[in-house]
């Protein structure tokens, strides 16, 4: 069965999302109001409607139009939590796509209704754990980072249901897709479980910094989120792309009931404006006023009894995780680093680009906590590139070579280690291509200039044999390479004859 769905374009190519991978890794969408989040969700849901069952938690009733074209059943929440749990159980049993519309409830009622419905999906029988996309629009309403005007009980129930969806839903076939206006308002333990990201236009510094951190970008690159046009998102993750790329979301078939505001000319004043607004028409006087939604009544009217029976809410249970053995963790990090270097494009990529790929792969492998910083990654990358041909004997001076490399600038450590290894093994002097790959560039001339800089610092000495073949010596190790290809090295600083 086809598993790729089309989100739009990235440059001239279609932007594809691997639906099978998404079911296992979850998705986070972020963007300020008007950036096109709801349009992106609608495009994703329309493209995958015929491939997988869907459930949409819709606080504004915008996605009810999916029912006309794709057969989604619209469930209007009325505050009966038990009924919603039973409906959710039947949804999983009969594999029907639904839209849970919460527009008629206040904030407290929306959180309770969403918690009841998600709980019913989560607690379904094991026989009915079919794959399902669960999209939650305005997720910061249901998983807030801090307490607000809603009751503590409603917040606890809703946050617990969202945590279950993102942390433990995968084994039950539930793939969470959460969209939020601000990452700073979304609970971190909910956002951290997503491995795929679509980041739209953002203006606040704290949200740009957090978005850049999730994508593995440097802080100076966070400014690009301000310049994204509406409907454009930066994508990253195993279901989208291994490297950050910008996609333009394509058009949708259905439309939202609440579209963007458009300027409309004012009507010409033909009657007395004061009479129009202060005098009721005959039709208006006959039409009954719609009752305002009433807040859910408290179970006990006596406030003193409520205070006496109050108990602080229990903390949200986090999924238990066994701490990884340090040796196993180190082996896993080494394996991830090896997989990064095995990529066909890794030789021409800078360490910063490879570090982004490394952090994403660590998230996929569930290596939590601080994996390693960029300086440590650069050091290990230099050693790994130098040891690409196999380990060097312990008694050969390789440990001393790594100590010397640690005292050099980060971008030169890998270049020095490649030369040092060739000298230790008595191998021919490295070629331009080998030096360029060690430095992380495709320019052999640039690598040779860096080699001359190493010679100025006294780390190496270059010379030529009688045939003009280059030889590089490492004075601190007392070793030198074999003759390489002629005309490899630039002419070094001229020395006066003694």
Automatic annotation (TrEMBL):
Ranges of residues in domain Helicase HerA central: 12-70
UniProt cross-references to InterPro entries, sorted A to Z: ATPase_Atu1862_pred, HerA-like, HerA_central, P-loop_NTPase
Pfam families the UniProt entry points to: DUF87
Superkingdom per UniProt: Bacteria
Region of interest: Disordered: 477-498
Cited PANTHER family: HELICASE MJ1565-RELATED
Protein name in the entry: Helicase HerA central domain-containing protein
Species of the source: Methylobacterium phyllostachyos
